[in-house]
Design a protein that fits this description.
The protein has one helix and 30 strands. An eight-stranded antiparallel β-sheet has the order 3-2-6-18-9-10-11-12, with no helix packed on it. A seven-stranded mixed β-sheet has the order 1-20-8-13-14-15-16. Strands 21, 22, 25, 28 and 30 form a five-stranded antiparallel β-sheet that branches. The chain has 371 residues and is mainly beta. It has two domains: 228 residues, Jelly Rolls (Sandwich); 105 residues, Jelly Rolls.
Amino acid sequence: MSQRPTKEGIAEGVTNPTEMLAQLSEQFNVIYSAAYYDLIPDNVFHSRYSYPGALPNTWVIENTVLAKYWNISYERPSGDNYIGLPTPSTTHTFTAYTKRAFSYPWGGVRPDSLPNIDTYRGSLWLYGYEPGSGLKWGLTGWVLTWSGSAASGLYARAGDTVRNMNAYLPTDYDQAGSNHTYQIKLNRNTVEYYINQVPVAYAIKTPTVRGNTFTAIAGPPYEIFQTIHPDTTVTPAFMEIEGTLSRINLDPRFFRVLNGDPTPPRVFNLYQTATTTLFVGSVIAAGTLTSHPVPVFGYPSKKLSFMASEQGTLSVESMSQSGNWREYDTIGITQDTLKTYSIEEDVVLIRVVYTPNTYPCTISEAEVVLR
């Protein structure tokens, strides 16, 4: 193998296995981990620090060395590894961007804990993807903000659109050693948000001249909202700390991002609308049963599978740009017989409504496969 500079491959004389692995991972574009930081920290990140200037409403922005702001020691407990200022500051912003940009990135962080949202007023923590500073439409990620009001808390953000996610924030998020994972997958047509590997929100990228065309749909099991910003799907990852917050306890091994699939295959179990109760196993004693919506925008193949203990009619509905649910098709269901159905047209959201001919009726199968 030909010799390459230290920033890009294994340099001459490097024999440490950990450093060799880090440099090889860079070379073959397999995975990107902040564990590199104790090896070649400033080959990985651009970092900057800003603070109020001498004149009113001005800020001083300085490029800085990441190693000054990321405390790393594998001999200490995870909570003693942190990114941020080593001592509290009155007002500041610290930002670190990866030097590499990622295509349709899939990344996440697992901090030891997050700061309590009732403690730090006027502060902000950001993690996600942004192609440049100040481009509000290009920011996609998790935002934890402390405003001292009902607006404080965890948000899923896509451009200028945000969705409050406090209902999904783990109750022990601020306790040392809680170690919750916050992940984001940026796709061609959607953005997926996960907490502890469980999907909790979907942002649908449907830019129109009318702006957002339907009201956000509340969960559980997950939130659905629209974003109209023209984001780039090749972007660096970043993390930012603002205000009086001094640091985030984050072991560098638990900041990761890699290239992803623009339209990753997905399987959705159907849930009763706005609940965590699965369709499968549900008993309809009277009337109908309606599912929580499934985001299907941009997938060429959309296949529904359904089975029930009683004969009936399955209505497939799609959300129109008027913000209304419209019947897409109706399907006859035979007792205890699996029915598969392909949705051929381009739609944004779908849901199903089942009306059995006799009661009670038990749902045996209910899922949507996207690819």
